[in-house]
# Entry
Amino acid sequence: MPSVLFQTLATIAIFLSSLSEAAPLDGLTKRADKVIGLDFDYVVGDVQNTTELTKRGDGYDAELINKKSFYLTYLELGSDKQKVGVDIDTGSSDLWVPNSSLYGRPVAQYGTYDSLTSKTSRNTHQPFRIVYGDLSSTLGTYVTDDVTFGGVDLKDFQFAQTFQSSTNVGILGIGLESLEAPVIYGYGNQYTNLPFALKEAGYIDSVKYSLYLNSPSASTGSLLFGGKDLAKIDGELVTLPHSGEDARLDVTLNSITVSGKVIDVTAPVNLDSGTTLTYLSNSVYNAFVKALGGNGQKFAQLPIVDCQQTGNLTYNFDGISIDVPLADIVQPIGFNRCVAQFMGGGQNILGDTFLRYAYLVYDLETKEISMAKAKFTTKSDVVAI
Ligand SMILES: *[C@@H]1O[C@H](CO)[C@@H](O)[C@H](O)[C@H]1NC(C)=O
Ligand SMILES: *[C@@H]1O[C@H](CO)[C@@H](O)[C@H](O)[C@H]1NC(C)=O
Ligand SMILES: *[C@@H]1O[C@H](CO)[C@@H](O)[C@H](O)[C@H]1NC(C)=O
# Structure
């Protein structure tokens, strides 16, 4: 997939709150200065029709086929603090929200933004248009206005209000500024996006954030701007250098291991909260499917594989491997048949099925990602980074 076509849409419904008011972190919550915490809700929705988003229960079931995961959070926009839910996306870099002309459409189910009722809204008259990796697209214009969440109050922050969209929910892109739609498509200038605005305003000291889901089957997770939670890191964080295209924060995946077979990958991959599944090259996909006893048949675009799978799908990076239980990847579709949540096509994206087993720290200044196995615990020991 080309450019911001680069990313697949993610969707995370997140409920923001600062650590100070973070009820979900019961147990030993330790506060740190210069850390902004965002807790989010994990929700899944139909790819075609997300009017019926449901909270994920334990484990996968057949109903989740063709569903997309969303990390949803709520922002307050404008002088009148309009509450709008957005999907946190590490694979794109613009914040956009549906405006009130989209009221009543599926994309507006988490709220809309009305520039007329906010006294602080200013239209920049700069266009915004973006096409995501799933070919969904959005059109609008940029405004500047106040954005508040979890104790943060950003004045005159630039985001897009959109009047046309084929996606399901507004997007909070938190990737590199070089991946902003006007830069990628060459129709406008780079601007300060949310992670960098938090540093400029002095809320955090470095443009880093860590991403964590509270358990393999969690319906909640958290994003920490400027911090990491030591209690949730199993072993050491290993820092991986940037690889691949400059504009995108990718790291090299060396190989995957499944059923004792090591399958070479050696390619840059994007760790994208906006994507649900794993997407690798067709040759990796074919070797993976073969190792799981598949014969090339598909259901709902996913490969049919043997239902009896034990052990892990292991993602091997330089100095760190992340295990994902195959039981989590393989799901029944009835009549004793199963599919694996794994796609070919060569986009090289690791989405939610991978992310939930890793503790990830994204550094947008050095363009590195640090990675460890996630330790699932309600304990918390947050430090600034
Ligand atoms: C989406 O789901 C809603 C609620 O079930 C239904 O009324 C509507 O017809 C669906 N839309 C499409 C395009 O399938
Ligand atoms: C919605 O956004 C478009 C594009 O920015 C703008 O022209 C239109 O006036 C907006 N509509 C409302 C109701 O805010
Ligand atoms: C799968 O990975 C987990 C977590 O790293 C590990 O504890 C377990 O032993 C692995 N299972 C197998 C069969 O290797």
